[in-house]
Write a structure and sequence with these properties.
alpha+beta; flat
Length: about 180
């Protein structure tokens, strides 16, 4: 097999082979800040499910009992689609407290200067209320403390927090 330059790839030494990211995955080309998708987008499929469900029920009601292709399955499917649509509608919370706000609230809550931190969005409860899970480490070369803070994604309320001395031994990695 030959490359674009016409050289035989089997003759290239292993230490000269380089992998590279495609241009669309290169993080250095990122110019705008990343906007986390809002939960309220769940309301779009909610409307679609509800309209499809109402359509199934209307078709079942319009055809009568002697229809060949439309049977009671349309009624059951229509009711199921409406129930699913209603669930998606109520679970479409507006995520008004983004990860930057959640990181700030978690930093104020733990009571130590924060170095590294990460944010993850999760959902809690039957109604799928968005909740930020913030993991924070203290601001030392080898962090001495760490904390986990749960922040409500709608109003920024601190749901729970856990702070402890860092049990990890990082002395082998430098300072």
């Amino acid at each position: 097999m030959t490359s674009d330059t016409g050289n035989d790839e089997s003759q290239i030494p292993d230490d000269e082979v380089r992998d590279s990211l495609p241009a669309d995955l290169d993080p250095s080309a990122l110019t705008a800040t990343y906007m986390f998708p809002n939960n309220s987008r769940r309301r779009i499929p909610a409307v679609i499910y509800t309209v499809m469900g109402a359509g199934c029920i209307a078709l079942w009601a319009a055809t009568g009992s002697d229809a060949v292709l439309v049977n009671d399955g349309f009624l059951i499917a229509g009711m199921a689609l409406i129930v699913i649509g209603l669930y998606h509608w109520q679970a479409g919370w507006d995520l008004s407290f983004d990860e930057q706000h959640a990181l700030g609230a978690a930093t104020r809550e733990v009571g130590f200067p924060v170095g590294h931190a990460s944010a993850q969005l999760g959902w809690r409860g039957l109604r799928s209320r968005p909740t930020w899970r913030i993991l924070l480490y203290s601001n030392e070369p080898s962090p001495t403390q760490r904390g986990l803070v749960l922040v409500d994604g709608i109003n920024g309320e601190i749901i729970d927090r856990f702070v402890e001395d860092n049990p990890e031994d990082w002395t082998a990695y430098g300072n």
